[in-house]
Design a protein that fits this description.
Elements lengths: L1 E2 L30 H18 L3 E7 L9 H18 L4 E8 L6 H9 L2 E6 L20 H12 L5 E7 L6 H9 L5 E5 L21 H14 L7 E2 H10 L18 E2 L4 E3 L13 E5 L5 H4 L3 H5 L9 H4 L4 H4 L21 H19 L8
Helix pairs in contact: 1-2, 5-6, 6-12, 7-12
């Protein structure tokens, strides 16, 4: 993950970068400088050569990565392609995505991104203006009009339309959120639990309601709408991950499963960090103390925070180890386990929600696949 900008033209009320415990973004360059851009590409190529990789994925992030236009994204990916070709020829495929809030997308910009093979994902909390009241600019003005214009452009370029990321809002009807998002014809969709933890619980799950499962129930309703909908060829990542895990496949996402973490982030000053979601825990929680100028990505693998996320069950709380849905849940997202004073070796703040959702999915797919019970009671 390469951060092109450390600032954003929006200030979403739930943002885990700008409204969380870690405000280190204030000390970072607003835009990635040339030396970081080039050195990041060299480090990626070094990693490709060291491990004989045949495919890598580069995610361009922010802030808002398209602030100032597409030029930085195009230059970054061009540098990565050139560096990787120099060490592997055509043997390593570079998959490039940019994750944007969609407000800056224009027809010329999308065409330029497409010409460089960069796919575009958009963050959106639902397909109606009232679903996106938390996605506002720094003056509190809604972003909806600009986003819908950007999505209309993307819909005309399905070859670069990667999909939509949607953060769950309990105040919204899950079926309406799903139906409205489908109107934008996304190739893929992911429903995200708000980044939260035991120190900063998510909306609707305070200390007195820790055992309740409002997010699990919300997601179960969304799952039914998707599963019963003839359009469910649109992949919803959380749901397809859970189905795969129930059938014994490895996970490919942080939200569920026990597969090791596969992502690392380079910030605009060249710092190599763990993923931004850890910013919800405490000041500089994602920090490794390493930079692309002095360290390789292999060096980062020795960092205790990264090691902990390679250990599978070895990094989980004792109560997780006896849980009947462990192999599917995997302890939930690492960032959601944090508790001040005991770190990350706790069950997820969404523990009850994940169990409700996983059991619901299992019950729905068992008869369809002609299977017996996929989970113990």
């Amino acid at each position: 993950m390469l951060k092109l900008h450390s600032r954003c033209n929006l200030l979403c009320t739930y943002c885990y970068v700008y409204n969380a415990a870690d405000d280190s973004w204030r000390d970072r360059p607003s835009r990635i400088p040339d030396n970081v851009l080039k050195r990041s590409a060299q480090r990626i190529a070094e990693h490709v050569a060291a491990h004989g990789l045949r495919r890598i994925r580069v995610e361009l992030h922010g802030g808002e990565p398209l602030l100032g236009g597409a030029e930085t994204a195009l230059r970054q990916i061009a540098e990565v392609h050139a560096a990787v070709r120099a060490v592997s020829g055509t043997l390593c495929e570079v998959q490039a995505n940019v994750q944007t809030n969609g407000t800056l997308l224009t027809e010329p910009m999308v065409r330029r991104l497409a010409s460089s093979g960069i796919r575009v994902g958009v963050s959106l909390d639902g397909g109606r203006a009232e679903h996106n009241k938390r996605r506002v600019d720094h003056a509190g003005r809604p972003s909806w009009g600009a986003v819908t214009r950007g999505l209309a452009v993307l819909a005309e370029h399905p070859e670069v339309y990667a999909g939509i990321l949607c953060t769950i809002d309990l105040d919204l009807d899950p079926e309406d959120v799903y139906d409205s998002l489908m109107e934008f014809r996304p190739a893929a969709l992911d429903l995200l639990l708000p980044h939260a933890n035991w120190a900063s619980p998510p909306p609707g799950k305070g200390p007195s309601t820790a055992g309740s499962a409002p997010y699990g129930e919300w997601l179960a309703r969304a799952f039914d709408r998707w599963f019963d909908d003839g359009r469910y060829r649109t992949r919803i990542r959380l749901f397809t991950e859970i189905i795969g895990l129930l059938l014994g496949l490895p996970s490919g996402a942080e939200a569920v499963g026990l597969s090791p973490i596969v992502a690392v982030l380079v910030d605009t000053d060249g710092s190599i960090e763990q993923v931004d979601s850890l910013k919800t825990a405490y000041q500089r929680a994602p920090s490794t103390g390493m930079t692309v100028f002095r360290h390789s990505f292999d060096d980062v693998l020795e960092h205790p925070g990264i090691v902990a996320r390679q250990l599978g069950t070895g990094a989980l709380a004792d109560e997780c180890l006896s849980c009947p849905v462990l192999q599917v849940c995997g302890g939930g997202h690492y960032a959601h386990r944090y508790l001040k004073g005991s770190g990350f070796r706790n069950r997820s703040v969404y523990c009850a929600d994940l169990e409700v959702l996983i059991r619901h999915v299992a019950r729905r797919i068992e008869p369809v696949l002609g299977l017996g019970s996929l989970l113990p009671d």
